[in-house]
Structure to design on (391 residues):
């Protein structure tokens, strides 16, 4: 089987890329071919380095790209992602007369109100995303499935039990003097324009940290994007107000380094897929998504977080000081931090393990292709049965 995965994005890397990368690796491990259609850049190179076939396209002339790709390649199935990648996928699927699937990642409907019947399956990354589609008039509800973000638990795994051993892991990232007697908070996020709500929540927490002159919280920020410069300005204000550096920016980090960072943390602040990765690393998380504030992921908040893809769906409800208060309520309670960290890891292993969802997705592909082949065979039989004989 040869599967085309078109994906359009503005940020060079992020949670969408991780989702698609995991999808492609699962396809290849099964012995099938996977080709990702995407813009040139670091993601395309990452895929090439891993043996994934790539078609580079700048998505500037979709009609031309659809025609050229349809003429040059043969695919059995297309699994598209939203907007321009969905549009180019639909065009190729029509030209080649093959099934197309779509994954919806957030609070939007794209063109599904008008053309949902064109897709064999529509996958949503959470129940909240599915409900958003239903509330906005998407029909063919039997086609909509929840296919959540999942975690590679071989990369994101539980680390040291001892806090002192965990802190040793972070010494390679920041000055050792920063962490003596302090609490380590990791903020991990792609800093795109669409993440403005998340970045504003963090900046709000820093304002309260300055107001209450708390100099024992040490922040390590992992991520990059257009919003980073503004966040750095806010960090400099807090550093200057407290008279020392309490916020360190590391930029974009590989998954291996992120796991080491998460394991070293007392607490992590993160959205969506990053929140799940951190929970798999056995550390407590306060989840904030681009569409809503969730709070600490514990027994009382797990379903709220999971339902919304950890803030990816919501109404952006946030009370100034809320993140600061949530941090302050647990940051010094080691027993509480360990308890909710272990709870989160168990829930990830139970319902968000990549190994399980890889098998599930491949079974979906098999089922769709079997139904497609059956329908095509029946169509051919009907044509033969009702064809007019030559005279």
């Amino acid at each position: 089987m040869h599967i085309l995965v078109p994906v359009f994005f503005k940020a060079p890397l992020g949670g969408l890329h991780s989702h698609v990368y995991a999808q492609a690796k699962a396809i290849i491990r099964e012995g099938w071919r996977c080709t990702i259609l995407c813009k040139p850049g670091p993601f395309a190179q990452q895929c090439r380095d891993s043996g994934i076939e790539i078609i580079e396209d700048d998505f500037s002339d979709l009609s031309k790209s659809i025609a050229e790709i349809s003429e040059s390649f043969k695919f059995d199935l297309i699994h598209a992602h939203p907007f321009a990648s969905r549009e180019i996928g639909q065009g190729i699927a029509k030209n080649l007369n093959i099934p197309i699937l779509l994954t919806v990642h957030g609070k939007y409907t794209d063109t599904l109100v008008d053309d949902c019947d064109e897709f064999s399956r529509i996958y949503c990354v959470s129940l909240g995303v599915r409900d958003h589609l239903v509330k906005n008039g998407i029909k063919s509800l039997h086609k909509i499935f929840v296919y959540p973000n999942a975690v590679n638990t071989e990369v994101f795994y539980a680390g040291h039990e001892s806090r002192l051993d965990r802190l040793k892991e972070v010494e390679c990232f920041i000055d050792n003097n920063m962490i003596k007697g302090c609490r380590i908070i990791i903020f991990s996020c792609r800093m795109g324009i669409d993440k403005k709500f998340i970045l504003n929540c963090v900046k709000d927490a820093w304002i309260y940290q300055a107001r209450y002159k708390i100099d024992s919280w040490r922040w390590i920020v992992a991520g990059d994007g257009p919003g980073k410069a503004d966040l750095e300005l806010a960090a400099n204000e807090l550093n200057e107000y407290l008279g020392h550096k309490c916020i360190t920016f590391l930029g974009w980090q590989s998954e291996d380094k992120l796991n080491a960072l998460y394991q070293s943390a007392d607490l992590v602040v993160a959205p969506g897929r990053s929140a799940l990765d951190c929970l798999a690393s056995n550390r407590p998380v306060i989840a904030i998504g681009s569409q809503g504030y969730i709070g600490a992921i514990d027994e009382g908040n797990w379903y709220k977080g999971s339902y919304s893809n950890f803030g990816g769906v919501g109404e952006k409800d946030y009370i100034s000081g809320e993140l600061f208060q949530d941090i302050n309520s647990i940051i010094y309670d080691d027993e509480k931090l360990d308890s909710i960290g272990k709870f989160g890891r168990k829930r990830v292993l139970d319902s968000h393990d990549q190994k399980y969802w890889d098998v599930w997705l491949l079974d979906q592909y098999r089922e769709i292709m079997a139904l497609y082949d059956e329908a095509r065979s029946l169509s051919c039989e009907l044509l033969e049965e009702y064809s007019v004989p030559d005279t």
